Structures
1.
Amino acid sequence: MSENDTLSVDIWRGGEDGSFQTFHVPQRDHQTILDVVTYVQKKLDPALAYRFACRVGMCGSCAMTVNGEPRWTCRTHVSRVARDGKLTIAPLRNMPVIRDLVTDMTPFFEKWRRATGSFVPSATRHDPMASVDPASAERTAADEGIECINCGICYAACDVVAWNLDYLGPAALNRAWTLVNDERDADRTGHLRAVAGDAGCHACHTHQSCSTYCPKALNPTAAIAGLKRRTVEAALKGGL
């Protein structure tokens, strides 16, 4: 790839009522979307607002919408997503836009709180450390969801969130599933109760967009299906 090649990059500027601004960026081998945004901020427009931190796919803070799809930008190479030398970069959908590529993630984390996403200890620091069988069915189920980095990509990809802003969303429900399967948690019934309402797990339409776009290859759709089963079982037994 020649260093003289350029990318035509449309980047969202402003707030909810903003518009796209076009920049021309040198195209390089092994260039990521985050490299492109950083080039624009450093070389062309220092006022461009965006988030990033680790740059190695661990923190999730650099997530944006690239050519209409939610992605983590530090690990997405331009060669994979550019179309005829063009890119369109926008903030994640389903969250309010603060400015440019920065969204307000308050609704995302507030739904974590509503889904009781915090571990409830069943022991104190003075008790012996719990021994959990790594081969147990519950531990295996929890293992599949604990690598979530809270990037918000699944939330931005979810059509149900777009239709129903009360819906808890894939990340919050995935977190609830890990806690329901954690034998050390003292309020597993409480976690089920929190996700059993109209805006909880049963609102999921199983489109699997969350699983399709998750950069960590998690499967929130499967976690939500598990919550559906467990909440129904608990309700039939009078536990909810």
2.
Amino acid sequence: MTVYKIKRIYESPESDDGYRVLVDRLWSRGISKERAALDEWAKDIAPTNELRQWFGHDPEKFAEFASRYTEELDANSVAATLKQQWQEHPVVTLLYSAKDIEHNQAAVLQQWLER
């Protein structure tokens, strides 16, 4: 069974990160491709631009954001395919750039992947 972890992309890569996936639609500021040490950039399963802009990382909107993003994931065939592919890895670390470590799309995606 795959273990899904979440981590800010600004944190240093570690050997126990396993398969490292950036789950932001936009590339993270100030991060080079070398520093990111990515195995994959899954921008096609990130929240839509409309949802991302509506949310604006406002913690008070997080519950509604999580609900809407989960609906997007449920309807996204790419997300279903990636979920199946990632099950080949013992550990998948979902990387995000948001400053809020609790209220971000990676946390929602992690829950979606684990259900």
